[in-house]
Amino acid sequence: FLSFRIPRITTASNLAVELAKRTRFLRDEIIKIELEEEKEAKHKPLTGFYNAFKQYLIYSITPQQFADLYAQTLTYGLFAARTRANEDFNRELAYKYIPTTIGILRDIFRFISLEDPPKTLKIIVDDIAEILKVTQVNKILDRYFQEGKGKDPIIHFYETFLSKYDPEIKEKRGVYYTPEPVVKYIVNSLHQVLKDEFGLQDGFASEDVTVLDPAAGTLTFPAEAIK
Question: Which domain holds residue 61?
Fold first, then answer.
């Protein structure tokens, strides 16, 4: 599975492929197995995170779903951290670049970067970090931006990543990039409808308006509505 040669990555698609195959391995061969083995162990760090996810995020989450979510969180957390880092980057440094405003992500990376995660978990996370270290991530994202993939390519790259990681999940969750001009047009049109047809002078900003987006994805529409 793991090549001794670090692949040369120059495009968003190539990066997504390399991250996706490592994330699948992390999900299927590391996290699922570690969760099973922790049933007989005294020290249960991943089980602790699983229980926290159940308590604070998704009450009905299964171990399999947790393995998927946790694996994606690790990979995308490393990816986001790499965009904020200088040339030097590894698993231990990743925690430094996780925004302090994202508490649960900080907790996950405190464990991954500063504590003592299982050896198998260290190995694959180190490999993902090494891939990101030798890749000019910000140049790739800048090209992504220049191609009109949105003002926040870190968010919109997730569609590319998910299409390589698990196309079926991408389809089920409806993770598709909507061009920003289209988002603006739809939101502005609804804003005007609220004013003209419903007599709400402030449109989306009116107290009587509640914005619901059951397929919010990367929150592009709610974010535009807030503006």
Answer: 12-173
